[in-house]
Amino acid sequence: MALLPPDPVFTFNQRIGPVNSLCFHHHERLFAGTQKGQVYLFDLQTNRSTFNMTIGENPLLSIRHSEDYLFSMEKGGTFKQNQLTNSGYKLANEIQQEHTGFCGFDCSSEDNIILAPKDENCISVLSLDTLKEIHKLTVPPDTQTGPISCVKYLNMHYALAAYSCGYVMLWDLRSYKILAEERFNDCITSIDYDLVTNRGIIGSACDKIELFSFNTTDAKISKKADLQIKNPGVNCVKIRKDLKVFVSGGFDGRLRVFSWKSKRLLTVLSEHKGNLMDIAFSDGPVSFWKANIMAASGSDGKITLWDIYN
After folding, report:
1. How many alpha carbons fall within 13 Å on the CB side of residue 89?
2. pLDDT band at 3 (very low <50, low <70, confident <90, very high)
3. CA-to-CA separations, 171 to 104, 107, 194, 294, in angstroms, rounded
4. Is residue 1 pLDDT above 50, yes or no?
5. Cα 144 to chain center, whole Å?
6. What is the pTM assigned to this prediction?
7. Which of 132, 119, 59 is nearest to 92 (CA)?
8. 253: left (phi over 0), alpha (psi -120 to 50) or beta
9. Does residue 139 contact residue 169 with C-beta atoms inside 8 Å?
10. Cα distance between residue 117 and residue 111, in whole Å
């Protein structure tokens, strides 16, 4: 039986429209990328929006912040690098990826790498510092994958990519070749992976969350289990870094919190109305609440903050 759901510790109701993407910066700052092409900064010490800027005219699919740069990708493929300065943000670089789908990007500041969708089903391997394309991960022309739907950077050796027709592919970032592939449900929307337990999760438009693992020795991706959910459709799945829980954000506006160890449903959070669009975890304790915080955003324009199972 699921536990009684907690309440959010705070809710931002800024009337900024649907919020597609979230990212933390230095624990105390939360950035939100909107459907209107704007980025808002929320100070988590005062719980107020202290800054906003227009990135572009198109919806922001995803945003990330390194130490000194804010990265953003718009619908249509425009990828921008804005530098943090004493007076705000200044555009440092811009490239065009010609991607018309809804796939966001993933990156690692430590490894100086960005994985960003390009064209219909390619992935650009970019330098985080310069946005220079190092290589492209291109699906063989005879493989009917459909458009790329999500990417996940694992480490300097591996990356995962999911495609709308249900394919999940493990890429070798040294040889830029596919090591393993498997077919899951169509319309994959999100993917996350934990290298410690060697398990991953997949969200899609169907009524279940799929678990899998991969073995690089025999180049095989293995399906592990299916977790049924009451209402179909999951927009985002995220594993918390302490590996205690993972969370899914549904089309029905519900955040479902599962134990990562047992895969048991712990609670369902129903603060949002409409699609959940993104989930983000702080890398460390937020001083105002003295705890690690989860943030969630959706098509209802709300951003909720949660202290769950710490």
Report:
1. 22
2. low
3. 17, 15, 16, 29
4. no
5. 24
6. 0.95
7. 132
8. left
9. yes
10. 18
| Tokens, residue 239 | 């594993």
pLDDT digits (tens, 9 = 90+) for 135-158: 999 999 888 899 999 999 999 999
DSSP letter for 286, please.
B
- Is residue 276 within 8 Å of 296, Cβ to Cβ? yes
pLDDT tens for each residue of 64-91:
999 999 999 999 999 999 999 988 999 9
Report how many helices (DSSP H) and strands (DSSP E) the chain contains, helices first. 0, 28
Which secondary-structure segment (H or E) carries 204?
A: strand 199-204
Q: Are 202 and 188 in contact (CB under 8 A)?
A: yes
Tokens of 77: 């493929």
Type of residue at 218: D
76: left (phi over 0), alpha (psi -120 to 50) or beta: left
Burial 151-186 (b: 16+ CB within 10 A, else e): bbbbeeebbbbbbbbbbbbbbbbeeeebbbbbebbe
Nearest to 164 by CA among 118, 213, 77, 101: 101
